[in-house]
Amino acid sequence: MSANTAPDTRPIPRHARKLLATPLLGLLFCAGSAVACVEYGINRDLLLDKTYATYPDAGRVQFDQKFASRSFKDCPEERDVPVFMTLEMPGLIYEGEVTFRGKSYPAYSAAPDSPLVMFYHHVAFSEDGPLRNGEEVPGLFEMSGGTSLEASIQYWAVVFSRGGRMRTPPTMTGSITLRAPSEPSLDHQSIVQLDLKFPVTTCPLQDKAETLQDVQTAELSVPGSTAKEKLVAIRMDCGVDPPRARMTLSDAGDAGNTGSQLTPTADSDAEGVRVQLLRNGSEVQFGQTWDFDPGVGGVHDHQFTARYIRTNEPLVPGTIKGEAVLNVDYW
């Protein structure tokens, strides 16, 4: 006679197995939730929009700066993460190096008379480094892990004077891209947009017509002789603000003329004589520029002297006319 001593192993109903599995799945879900860094903060893009009433006259002097910050928290573990950053600013011109906090950084401009701009990065607790346009540069992000806040990744733009006059350049637009192959949750891109404005004071100018006295043949007896000088003043009314400008006098009849004698107009019929212009007692040189920076507003007169000058051709009586153009380029 045999007896069955095995324990009672009744099958577990299907619905009961599902209930037993549920707590295990919940535990697995909680244990695997902290797998990536989480970004927070609002100052993510590098945006500088500013108007400058004054700036240093000397070259390569810092006069403004702005930064963007990418901040993270809840990173999965404590370790150093290699990161790689690329500055892309189409159209910028490399202008050499500037010194900032004892180090050399590349400087860029958007136009020949625009300010210089330098970019650099500050990644967590590592050393600051330059951002070079179109080049990928390395950095090291020290991730602390846990629930603590991480140090931010900062991008800086520093503005330097060019030296002398500067004018409003085209808007500088681009981006800074960061990639972290071993921690992709740090990957991001920041927009860069710099609007640097330099307002100018403009001054109305009025056309000026002057008539020289009649001249006798005897007064222009030999080539190079001159006669009948007359002052010609061009008035500039600038209001209360002081202007700054670069001025150029040119021959209206011949843009390539670099002398001091005006090309006769089409209705001139005299020969062997022309109208010559002087400034500050010396013959002008058409096309040559000079700076005008009086430091005060109000009315300013730009004075020239007009006179007849005998040329090498035979003298023929008649009327001689010439026209000059004064171009004022404000900055």
From TrEMBL:
GO CC terms: pilus
PANTHER family tied to this protein: FIMBRIAL SUBUNIT ELFA-RELATED, TYPE 1 FIMBRIN D-MANNOSE SPECIFIC ADHESIN
Biological process annotations from GO: cell adhesion involved in single-species biofilm formation
Primary localisation category: other
Superkingdom of this protein's organism: Bacteria
InterPro entries for this protein: Adhesion_dom_fimbrial, Adhesion_dom_fimbrial_sf, Adhesion_dom_sf, Bact_Fimbrial_Adh_Pro
UniProt domain Fimbrial-type adhesion: residue ranges: 201-330
SUPFAM superfamilies linked to this entry: Bacterial adhesins (SSF49401)
Biased composition (Polar residues): 257-266
Family per similarity comment: Belongs to the fimbrial protein family.
Organism: Stenotrophomonas maltophilia (Pseudomonas maltophilia)
Region (Disordered), start-end ranges: 249-269
Protein name per UniProt: Fimbrial-type adhesion domain-containing protein
Location within or outside the cell: Fimbrium
UniProt KW keywords: Fimbrium
